[in-house]
Amino acid sequence: MKEEQIQTLHPIPGKTNKRIALEKYAVIKEQILSILSQSELTHTELMEQLYAHVKDTFEGGVQWYGETVKLDLEARKMIERTGTKPEKYRLRTANA
Asked: Could you tell me if residue 15 is inside a domain?
């Protein structure tokens, strides 16, 4: 049976992101949201923490999937960049 796929979105209009396995998307999305619920992180910090959380159980390139899902979450307005230097990521608040 073919695994279910999801078309991920890209935050830059006109750009398309990748189609990936829904199961892998769900794992990475849950981890990114969980990590960012603790604190705002730079891109490097986010990817390092993501890798530390899933490296023993995730099959595939953690950084590649992490980047793909991070862009999708930005496009879906679930996370955002802080606009500071260095740039950090955070969860979007309901009233933002």
From this structure: yes
Question: What are 33-66's pLDDT values in tens digits?
Answer: 999 999 999 999 999 999 999 999 999 999 999 9
Determine the structural domain holding residue 76 and report its residue range: 5-91
Identify the CATH number of the domain in which residue 13 sits. 1.10.10.10
- CA 46 – CA 75 distance, rounded (Å): 17
Task: Please state at what angle helix 22-36 crosses helix 62-75, rounded to 10 degrees.
Answer: 70
Q: Within a domain: residue 82?
A: yes
Tell me, what DSSP letter sits at residue 85? S
| DSSP of 13-78 | TT----EEEHHHHHHHHHHHHHHHTT--EEHHHHHHHHHHHHTTT--S-HHHHHHHHHHHHHHTTS
**What's residue 94's pLDDT?**
59
